[in-house]
Amino acid sequence: MKLDPFYLIVDSAAWIERLVPLGVKLVQLRIKDMDEAGLCREIRAAKAVCERHRCQLIVNDYWRLAIDEGCDFVHLGQEDLAEADVKAIRHAGMKLGLSTHDDAELDTALAAAPDYVALGPVYPTILKAMKWAPQGLDRIALWKRRVGATPLVAIGGLNVDRIAGVFAQGADVAAVVTDITLNADPEARTREWLAATAQWR
Ligand SMILES: Cc1ncc(COP(=O)(O)OP(=O)(O)O)c(N)n1
Ligand SMILES: Cc1nc(C(=O)O)sc1CCOP(=O)(O)O
Ligand SMILES: [Mg+2]
């Protein structure tokens, strides 16, 4: 499966409404701390925008709600995966992306035959506290050898200047949050990401 090389991750449907129309084709809705009714509203709104713009929506964490709302792709971390019903996710026809941070997690992820594997944090991230040290670029090449044809997503501390480095090491997709959402001009930065990833599209 070919995924767009630019993977935007945001925490609201409002961000999706704002940035997806610029040409984003792969977006994750990553919401923390919201009640179920709110999550359903957000997922529904995000899905509507993504359908209009032929953008692949990936729902983080909330796989049951994603199934209920008719979404087709979820992202799970290792703790999410441990509690998830992967059979139910697959039975619903959903694609599945998985986080990995070390060898043991990669073994666990590959056993679930994911639609992509994410490796992070490649660089230090300010989005959330992480118990893993930055992986560094060499680790991407190692991961790509292990995942083979499964798309490899690089995440953590990426910015426009770091994109070429992760693709040179074998990443198929670069994921980003704060380089865009904390930028003084998120629309302009999104356009920069679209241009900078064009050669891998
Ligand atoms: C593309 C991508 N990679 C990694 C993560 C992190 O998932 P997880 O470890 O479950 O942490 P949270 O994002 O849920 O805090 C991700 N969301 N997306
Ligand atoms: C949500 C997330 N997961 C990571 C992992 O390593 O699993 S790094 C990360 C944060 C990515 O945000 P930014 O692009 O702002 O660094
Ligand atoms: Mg998670």
From TrEMBL:
GO molecular function: thiamine-phosphate diphosphorylase activity
InterPro entries per the UniProt record, alphabetical: Aldolase_TIM, ThiamineP_synth_sf, ThiamineP_synth_TenI, TMP_synthase
EC number: 2.5.1.3
Taxonomic lineage from the root: Bacteria, Pseudomonadati, Pseudomonadota, Alphaproteobacteria, Hyphomicrobiales
Protein's name according to its UniProt entry: Thiamine-phosphate synthase
Sequence similarity: Belongs to the thiamine-phosphate synthase family.
Pfam families, alphabetized: TMP-TENI (PF02581)
Reaction catalyzed: 4-methyl-5-(2-phosphooxyethyl)-thiazole + 4-amino-2-methyl-5-(diphosphooxymethyl)pyrimidine + H(+) = thiamine phosphate + diphosphate; 2-(2-carboxy-4-methylthiazol-5-yl)ethyl phosphate + 4-amino-2-methyl-5-(diphosphooxymethyl)pyrimidine + 2 H(+) = thiamine phosphate + CO2 + diphosphate; 2-[(2R,5Z)-2-carboxy-4-methylthiazol-5(2H)-ylidene]ethyl phosphate + 4-amino-2-methyl-5-(diphosphooxymethyl)pyrimidine + 2 H(+) = thiamine phosphate + CO2 + diphosphate
Name of the top EC class for this enzyme: transferase
Sequence ranges assigned to domain Thiamine phosphate synthase/TenI in this UniProt record: 12-180
Keywords: Magnesium, Metal-binding, Thiamine biosynthesis, Transferase
Family annotation (Gene3D superfamilies): Aldolase class I
Pathways involved: Cofactor biosynthesis; thiamine diphosphate biosynthesis; thiamine phosphate from 4-amino-2-methyl-5-diphosphomethylpyrimidine and 4-methyl-5-(2-phosphoethyl)-thiazole: step 1/1
Cofactor(s) of this protein: Mg(2+)
Domain of life: Bacteria
SUPFAM superfamilies: Thiamin phosphate synthase (SSF51391)
